[in-house]
Write a structure and sequence with these properties.
single chain, alpha+beta, 7-stranded mixed β-sheet, two-stranded antiparallel sheet
Amino acid sequence: MTKPLTLPRLKVALGSGETLDLASLRGRFVVIYAYPKDSTPGCTREGQDFRDLHPQFAALGAEVFGLSRDSVASHARFAEKQGFPFALISDPDETLCRALDVIQEKSLYGRKFMGIERSTFLFGPDGALIQAWHKVNVPGHAQAVLDSLKAAAHG
């Protein structure tokens, strides 16, 4: 029997240059969306969708984070250019990515490689996973996450 996924107890680097202990987020809803690469079209659109809905996530007491293997400096540029009101987690050594099991074999133009499978995780205030989305299609996804958060917050 596998242990249910909970918010990993890790210290992570943010695009702001700060370090965050994920354990400090207990008591709040947490959304972590994992995406392949800063400043690419799909990843930009996904971030913009979470940005545009951010006031509604915040009103429900949720912290939103983007997660990729990009550097702190890349995240800082990406977040500033897009006006993201949430932090981006830099995970070049894949510690959090592997804890969330988002490093998967991918194929592009016939070439196979290991990369981040676009995924999102909604954790409850107790740190327990409420819902996970894998192989995410960007259009409408941020709204679907918000809808699940609303149901969990009012359920």
